Structures are given as structure tokens and as C-alpha cells.
Amino acid sequence: MQYEALAVFLSGLLMVLIGGYCLWTAGLQTWHVLHAQSEALSLVVSLTAGLSGGLLLLVAFINWRQGQHAHDSVLLAAAQDHFSDAVTSLVTMVATTLTILTHWYLLDTLTAFGLGGYIIWNGCQILSQSAAKLSNGFDPKIRQQIVVCLDLVVGVDRVIYVNGRYVGDNLVLDVAVEVAPTLTISQADQLRQQLQQLLTEKWSLLYCCIELRAA
């Protein structure tokens, strides 16, 4: 399962490198425009970019739907990657068309700078998320969400701790909650099952250990 997180990490790294290359080529093109005061552009480029952007948006949406349904970080990363490419293509279409109409050639190169930065930003987001999973890190926001969720359950006096780690896209949780000392064994078993079912419905769990401690 760690191979999935590694694949996502490499995808994010590739996006950062592509964004850096875009910034480099944008810089070279800007230098050329400043000296030549012109740039070879065609409406065919705009039409191709628009068609490509539309198709990439469709692919991104399909991957996102499938990734949400299957809790698959690889599909979600692919959706983010395709969405980034779609935005790049559509912005390229608009920038190229405006450049041809206005003859302001710096518009195209300045847009390339913005797109390069956008691609790098998206890549960094993917890198950050996948690096946390590769290092078995546990998102503090998810921990807080679990604490709030458990606190609302009748029979739980307070949440003592919530520890977790990632195994691929799944969570391994170790939870301890404080309950009333008058709770019977049967009631404790029912409460434990209720808590486990609640956590399983809201998060993708590989394993969950729930400890009940008398107050």
C-alpha cells in the first residue's frame, strides 16, 4: 500500500519539475519578445489548447469521482494533475487568443509565468500530502475531527487520546475514551461496536483498537 503513496509523491515531484521548466522557458521567451518585439502565434494553438482543456476536465472529473468512491489517493492525485493540466490549457487558449488580437506579446509570456507557478503550487500540495503518508504521519485536523465525533456519542464522557498512522490510504487507529464506571460488560461491548462502526463509516480504516476506561 505504501507503493501508492510513493507513486503519488513522485507524481507531485514531477509536477514541480514541470512547473520549474515552464518558468525557465517563460523567462527565455520573455527575453526573446523584449528583443524581437514579436512572437509566432496561431489560432490553431488556441483551438488545440481549448479542446485539450475540455477533455482534461472530463478526465479529471471522472478520476475525482472514482477516487472519492474508492478512497484511492492515486486516482485523486491523477484528478488533481489532470485538473491542473486542464486549467493550463484553457488559460493558454485565452492568453494566446488575446495576444493575437491585441499584439501585446508579453501577455503570453507573463501568463506562462503564472501557469508555471500554479503547477508548482499544485505539485507541492501533492508532495505535502503524500509525504505525510509515507512517513506514517497523522493529520492533526483528522485527529481533531475524530475527537469531536467521539465526544458526541452518548456514553462517552471524554476522549483520552487518539493515535493513528497511515498504511497506504487507510488509517490504523488507537483510541481510548473515558466512560461511566457503572457501565456493564454488555453495555461496554455495545458502545465499543457503536464507536467502531461510526469511525468506519466516516474514515477508511484498516484497523481500529478502542479502549474503554472507567472514570
TrEMBL record:
Q: Where is the Cation efflux protein transmembrane domain?
A: 3-134
Gene Ontology annotations for the cellular component aspect, listed alphabetically: membrane
Organism, by scientific name, is Lactiplantibacillus mudanjiangensis
The family this protein is said to belong to: Belongs to the cation diffusion facilitator (CDF) transporter (TC 2.A.4) family.
Stretches that traverse the bilayer? 6-28, 40-66, 86-107
Where, subcellularly, is it found? Membrane
Which key words tag this protein in UniProt?
Membrane, Transmembrane, Transmembrane helix, Transport
* Transmembrane is among the record's keywords: yes
GO MF entry, a single one = monoatomic cation transmembrane transporter activity
Q: Which InterPro entries match?
A: Cation_efflux, Cation_efflux_CTD_sf, Cation_efflux_TM, Cation_efflux_TMD_sf, CDF_Transporter
Q: Name the chain's protein.
A: Cation transporter [Lactobacillus casei]
Carries keyword Membrane?
Answer: yes
**Membrane topology per the record?**
Multi-pass membrane protein
